Amino acid sequence: MTMRLLWWMCSLTHFVSLVSADSDCIGTWCDTCLPVTIHDAPGVGFDLTPLYGTAVVDYYNGTVVEVAKIRGNPEYLELMARLATSKPVLQSTRNFMHELPSCLVEYLFPSVWSPWRDWWRWLNVKLGRPIKADGVEIISDLLQELKIATEKAISQPLDRVAVTEPGFQALSPAMVNAALRVLGLRTWLRDSVYYPSRLVEGDAVYAANGYGLCINYLDRFQCADEFANSPAPTVFVVSYNHNLLYTSIMDYATSEAFPYVSSPEAQLVDYELGLDNLLENDQDQTVFWDRLRSQLQILPRESEYTITHILLAGESVTHPRFLASLRESMSELSLGPATAKIQLAIDPTFAAARGAALYARRRQEVPSDCYEKLECEEMRLRERFHTSTREELR
Ligand SMILES: *[C@@H]1O[C@H](CO)[C@@H](O)[C@H](O)[C@H]1NC(C)=O
């Protein structure tokens, strides 16, 4: 019953926002052009893993810089462990169902950092109740450190980022967005109804490895069309850190990266199989490694579709013994030889943040709800020329 009501309210808000966006819908031309300062600005991506956060900057000239890796404080680790292992508020495994509450929150409180949360904290202070830092504050603490490191790297204030996260069902995009608002940062996710509301690590890593990237990214719909006839991949993402293992299956509708609905189809989280546990345990080593191998096989075995890609993330995933175990366990699954090939093209520690930065970089060049007129590129050429001559004269 509640689900139904939520669904209707969500559809209604979605419909209203579509109608109200009618005058500047994506089928129309923009009135203004993006200035060079936005169009050529570096794209910034953050990845919030259960253990640390990473920041990557993707510059207009194509240079990609891994800016920072910052360990979460004990509160952050505890929060993430809780979110990783708890069920979402709504007990439903369907992806779109899970989208509902956050979507509602986003539409009801579009730009303010939820007034209810503020009010609730204010009330508690008045009543003399001690208030512990809540999830939003804990997350914003780590985001702030990433922000500072990034601003130093790009030597300008940071305005907008794309944040990717593991996709735990209890960690809602609304929570991450609220944490960004605390810091005065805007997000590249769901800034208009045409763009996705969430970017999970699996998707970001898929894109960072060069998959599903359209050529014509200036046009949201043409971009999707490029992949209309491609077979849908089933991606197995293995994330490994010193304190935990988590694996996800990403099941796409087409092979396009950054899909509109981004959520792992299935996920496995195991805090007992982190690298530290495996290395510390002298006696039962074989038992542990055997368990690791079988845990790695669970999702691929249960998956309705055959795995087409195996992608890696996390700072411990390149440990030789872990890689050997992974290779062994995957070869037992008799996937095709091409699939079983485990790719190590980019550093798995920064893979997800690279994907997020790439997403941000591409979005810098595109207005979110209209098409730029053709003369915009010419205008920017002139603008860039003027800036460079002014700088030469200095
Ligand atoms: C790209 O731009 C960045 C920042 O302005 C600069 O540090 C880097 O050297 C440039 N790379 C190339 C290949 O020009």
UniProtKB/TrEMBL annotation:
UniProt entry keywords in alphabetical sequence: Signal
N-terminal signal peptide: 1-21
Superkingdom assignment: Eukaryota
Protein name per its UniProtKB record: Carbohydrate kinase FGGY C-terminal domain-containing protein
Organism: Penicillium egyptiacum
